[in-house]
Amino acid sequence: MKKTSKYVDGFVLPVPRKNLKAYLKMAKLGAKVWLDHGALEYVECMGDDVKKGKVTSFPQSVKLKAGEVVFFSWITYKSRAHRDRVMAKVMQDPRMSSFENMPFDGMRMFWGGFKPLVSK
What we know:
Layout: E1 7-16, H1 20-36, E2 41-46, H2 58-61, E3 68-77, H3 80-92, E4 110-114
């Protein structure tokens, strides 16, 4: 059985379809950087069945525009302290300088750290 992570960083962001190739290149590098510094898992998911809701939804949360797709992504760690150590190393990694020109609108991205309560 897979060991359950004890801390998760989650992200939701809009990506213009015209920038998907650039975003995937950035995501693959991100995965390499985070895993190289000890993250347990790095996952990027592109919206497939994420209809606009009446009150709230993934598309509404990022003010999704025509020609964009919403991504839901997460990184897992052993603990919050482990996340903090990994993140400090990631932020010092010179490969992160290639993230200066993001292929998405970072002002409409949201994220947070979560402690799993139920996981099977």
